[in-house]
Design goal:
Elements: E1 5-7, E2 10-14, E3 25-28, H1 36-51, E4 56-62, H2 65-69, H3 81-90, E5 95-100, H4 103-106, H5 110-121, E6 126-130, H6 143-153, E7 156-160, E8 164-165, E9 168-169, H7 172-181, H8 184-191, E10 195-202, H9 207-210, E11 216-219, E12 231-239, E13 242-251, E14 262-267, E15 278-288, H10 296-314
Parallel strand pairs: 2-5, 3-4, 3-6, 4-5, 6-7
Antiparallel strand pairs: 1-2, 8-9, 10-11, 10-15, 11-14, 12-13, 12-15, 13-14
Helix pairs in contact: 5-6, 7-8
Length: about 325
């Protein structure tokens, strides 16, 4: 469960009691991946909140409900809570309210969930929901359920149509397949940008610095998050000081020790110390597989090529991180 904190302009709260919000318009969901279908809901949320001079609030769950209901069949996450917060903040939302999902929450009937969380804790003035979204016990609540509850408790309801890309509905399941294969060119239009990875920068062995390409070693929980196909990626890194193009390696560094898989990011044109900070990475395009080089000279030559390719690719309009 994430602690109460503030990330830039987004307030993050644990939803276990009343939360001070200005006449909030609310949506509910796991928002795993915060893909373009989710973004359509968030856009509608902002619109309706703005129209009534209200705050916008997203209610999400941690852990993911499937990790509680069927842990042995739960798919890996596209986004951790930190990564969801990053994307939801980018969408201009005011509040992210995190419900600690457990079997007690799972067992709540739709009416009880709405009464406790949306009415009791948030005093929602309106609720925005995807047209096929289910909530409450066994996902038995739907938009019709919500409209009936809204008449009783005095909040409005707005539904949002599904989003299609390439003639198919966008879903987290569809995106997982493309991330696992490393095909970010297919994943990017579904995500509305690159694949997000957020983690703390921890000390490494400084080998990158020794060969002229210092890297940030980003610690990521690989136990629940979907890892991309190992390889070298063009991407972007967001620091407290700004956003930088980057070359990101995910893998075991076969030229050196073949250790456990890790993320290492070389930020282009960056100078500074990132140790102990949270670094936001966005993987935009897969450059190549990992490879073992026979000499440092060969490795340096390849990294130089990777940097040149990343600069060129990231400068293209169609590889923009956010549309």
């Amino acid at each position: 469960m994430c602690p109460v904190e503030r990330v830039l302009n987004l307030r993050i709260v644990e939803l276990n009691g009343p939360v001070p919000c200005r006449n909030p318009v609310v949506t509910v969901g796991t928002f795993d991946g915060v893909h373009v279908g989710h973004q359509a809901v968030l856009e509608a949320l902002r619109y309706h909140a703005s129209a009534q001079s209200a705050e916008s609030a997203v209610v999400t769950f941690d852990p993911h409900p499937r990790q509680v209901i069927a842990p042995d069949r739960a798919p890996p996450l596209l986004t951790t809570v930190d990564e969801r917060a990053w994307r939801i903040e980018e969408a201009g939302i005011d509040v992210l309210a995190v419900v600690a999902f457990d079997h007690g929450v799972r067992s709540l009937e739709p009416s009880d969930f709405v009464l406790e969380y949306l009415v009791g804790y948030l005093s929602a003035s309106a609720v925005v929901l995807g047209h096929d979204h289910g909530f409450g016990r066994d996902r038995s609540g739907d938009v019709d359920t919500l409209e009936r509850l809204g008449e009783t408790h005095g909040f409005g309801v707005h539904s949002v149509a599904a989003t299609d890309v390439g003639g198919e509905p966008v879903s987290s399941t569809r995106i997982r397949r493309t991330i696992a294969s490393g095909d970010l060119d297919i994943a990017r239009p579904l995500l509305g940008g690159g694949y997000p990875v957020v983690g703390e920068v921890v000390p490494g062995d400084r080998r990158g610095r020794q060969i002229g390409f210092p890297t940030a070693n980003v610690q990521v929980d690989t136990s629940t998050k979907l890892m991309p196909r190992p390889g070298v990626y063009a991407g972007r890194a967001v620091t407290a000081g700004g956003t930088f193009d980057a070359v990101v390696n995910f893998g075991s560094r076969p030229t050196f020790d073949g250790a456990a898989q890790r993320f290492e990011a070389h930020l282009l044109d960056f100078e500074g110390d990132l140790y102990g900070t949270k670094l936001k990475l966005e993987l935009v395009h897969r450059l190549r597989d990992e490879a073992k080089f026979e000499s440092l000279t060969q490795l340096i030559h390849q990294i130089t090529t990777d940097v040149d390719k990343a600069r060129a690719l990231l400068g293209r309009h169609d590889l923009s991180t956010r549309r």
